[in-house]
């Protein structure tokens, strides 16, 4: 074990060089052909299957699993992509335990659902690795659509519009397309640069131009795009990060979880990423889990997630919580930060107040506990951050208001994904909304 | 503990489980392993006259599978033993000497000429084995040479050859029948008429198990070509049970001992054969799938069931189901059932609904008051049992008899309390003739 493992402060190279690959390898390795056949055999091919109802994109799950069991892997992948062109990523990142696999009748029967997520990965990996393209562009309609944000919603929207024969330009603020798939998901959930392979697979249909490094509000305005295109789709996600609202949170050792996750995803060598020996994460969602788990995998010796409510209220699924705690992360409930200060030794003191419910509302108890840490991550949610760029578009609870066909208050602007009200911060939901918005845009442009 | 000792046509074995004439009984090595494992007897793989036959050098088997590649049906194009006659005879002699308490029966297949049978029977008798089984069953290869199923498909030949066999040996003669005929009672009667001490059935069913879709050739494929083979394994059990029952019920052959063969995999399968009239059973595919160790549960499972049910020995269960096999026309048409779904064990897969809705009687709901729920509609349910068979949860759906006098909501009439079959039914134009 290297000496830096026990050293306080925020340091890189805490582990032996050889340990990083194992720590950040595929969290859920793919099924091999035999495992897939055995897993597929377990599907009952239910009528009006509950798993399909539970899937935000409505993939015909019994059909694609039956196609795996009959050896029709190409057909299986097509069944998935028909509904969800990002089915490969969703197979990796969907919280299936709260969606399709929770609804599986074998979960009801035995507590062991059909491994739908892994089977979906089996089929989509096959098709993508063999370069199978199932869709082609319809005849050019002469219409063009601008899409802002090359994340799951934007890519799904772009693909469906391209299928319809429209010309699509996708703008993204970052240097790479993919959005949260590229920057926001824990490294071990999507290894081997899968997000970029998927962008290539989606855009291979043709008619989709991706322009990176263009941020909404920074030389790019909706009004201008609406003038030069026939429609605009906004899928910009949530780029703002909620502040803790406590003294001391501007300290250098206090960081945004989403930035850390993005840094990890883009790193070519994990040993170069500095991390504290003692790390605290404030939050209760998937981002909190992802940052805590990865900090631990980087060599942080003591990692604690602190959440202001109880286990049941955490947005992170039970499975995700368990995976994180099984790796050594400690989850503390019912406490919130009230102050961050520097100790004489250079570490951080995070003063926490125990919380509880008072008259049904969350309240401080007046009892405190102070933790000494090297690094503090904020993971208490993201916000829509576009400033004046969204002027003229109605918001609802801080997100873009859309109708049932994902049209905004501006009739030539549609929106989908996390930036809209009513989203549930899931990749798969963003895909469904992007796809459905495309259908609505196509209907409007065809009218 | 139930007594499983078996006396089949005078051949004694410690239990009723014999290995059928097939690859597992082709050599002393295999047979000794089987006896060590606990098998009650073997029918040695079919001997022929020298020069011995040759087998293909390529694949001999094809299969179909169920979930998790469970082997359900096996097809083979192997012929009779491809070893010299003398080698087999020596080994049979040696095995019988070393295992006197086990049944050793020798399967035979030679051309339809009496001197051939006389010759081989004399040689086989010299081994000291317990009996012979005349192979009139194999559907492939040998039948093209006028043997196997070519004999078994012509009752006159069966009777003739059986008579030769009986004339040329004092050993018990078992005649193995082919299922590749229209009515198994005729070959069984022929064997009986020829003096057979017993019949055994079924041999394999003529089959092409699959076609390779790249080469467009039947499987197993030998240098680009395939041929029909013999089909066996769990998939053929229902066919075999029916044929065993047909012979057991036939007044002409009711007294003829039957060795039951066909897809027997578990003690339960064996018990079913015995209740339909089999005096013992022969197993092959199950052993070829799992090895000889399955004999443990074949024996222990049968013993346990017999003990629990109070059956002291095999005679206590032999033929017990025969009186309950009848013709369709004698089934009680007034017997009425309805499906019942246990909502507590229902896992909401909906297979009962879609099977009934798409392919049957529209008698199971899928939605009640906006909730996913599967309930039987008595007004439509004909009691067919399809929902029971497609339900993945055992005993979730059961068939409940509607007591006589109660209303059958489908017909709108009370269930009649008297027995009434087709021969008595007003819709039967032949009713008067039947009476």
Explain the overall architecture.
- The complex is a heterodimer of chains A (447) and B (435).
- With 447 residues, chain A is α/β, with parallel strands linked by helices.
- Chain A has three domains: 33-129, Fumarate Reductase Iron-sulfur Protein, Chain B, domain 2, CATH 1.10.1060; 144-238 and 384-446, FAD/NAD(P)-binding domain; 241-378, FAD/NAD(P)-binding domain (3-Layer(bba) Sandwich).
- Chain A is built from 17 helices and 21 strands.
- In chain A, helix 10 (152-163) packs parallel to helix 17 (427-446).
- Chain A is globular and about 70 Å long.
- Chain A starts with 9 loop residues before the first strand and ends with a helix.
- The model of chain A has no long low-confidence stretch (mean pLDDT 95).
- With 435 residues, chain B is of the alpha/beta class.
- Chain B contains 13 helices and 22 strands.
- In chain B, the strands form seven sheets. Chain B has an eight-stranded parallel beta barrel with strand order 3-4-7-8-9-10-15-16, surrounded by eight helices. A four-stranded antiparallel β-sheet of chain B has the order 5-6-14-11, with no helix packed on it.
- In chain B, helix 3 (114-125) crosses helix 5 (155-168), helix 5 (155-168) runs parallel beside helix 6 and helix 8 crosses helix 10 (295-309).
- Classes of the chains: A alpha/beta (447), B alpha/beta (435).
- At the A-B interface, helix 2 and helix 8 of A face helix 11 of B.
Based on the model shown, name its key terms:
heterodimer; A: Fumarate Reductase Iron-sulfur Protein, Chain B, domain 2; five-stranded parallel sheet; B: alpha/beta; eight-stranded parallel β-barrel; 22 strands; globular
